[in-house]
Amino acid sequence: xxxxxxxxxxxxxxxxxxxxxxxxxxxxxxxxxxxxxxxxxxxxxxxxxxxxxxxxxxxxxxxxxxxxxxxxxxxxxxxxxxxxxxxxxxxxxxxxxxxxxxxxxxxxxxxxxxxxxxxxxxxxxxxxxxxxxxx
Length: 135
Known about the structure:
It is a single chain. With 135 residues, the protein is α+β, with helices and mostly antiparallel strands. It has a single domain, classed as Hotdog Thioesterase (Thiol Ester Dehydrase, Chain A, Roll), CATH 3.10.129.10. It has 2 helices and 8 strands, in the order H-E-E-E-E-H-E-E-E-E. The strands form 2 sheets. It has a 6-stranded antiparallel β-sheet. The model has no long low-confidence stretch (mean pLDDT 95). Keywords: Hydrolase, Membrane, Transmembrane, Transmembrane helix. This is PaaI family thioesterase.
C-alpha cells in the first residue's frame, strides 16, 4: 500500500466526518480535493470559510502524517487563513500543503487553496501542529 493510500485510509477511519480526498502525500507535502456541492456554499453563492479552513487543515494534517507516521493525536495549535478571492461555487477546492519546519514537537506548514482550473489561489493558510511525544 502506498503512503498516499495509507494516509487516505487512516483519514477515512479516524475522521469519517470529512469528505476531503487525499490525492498526494510525500516529500513534506500533500495535495487534497474537496468536491463542492450546495451544502458547501454560503449565502451569496460562494464556498464558505469553514469549508476552506477544513480543506487547509486536512491538507496540512495529511502532509504531517506523511512525515511522522499515522499519529491520531497530532493536533492543530495555531491556524491563520487569508481569504484572497471568491472561490468558484461550481469547482472543487484544491489544497496544496508544503511543510516549512518539521521538528520533534512542532510542525509548521502553509497551504494554498485553489478553485480547480484557476491558477490564482483563493486562500492562503499557515498552521502549526503539536506532535505528541513518542512513548
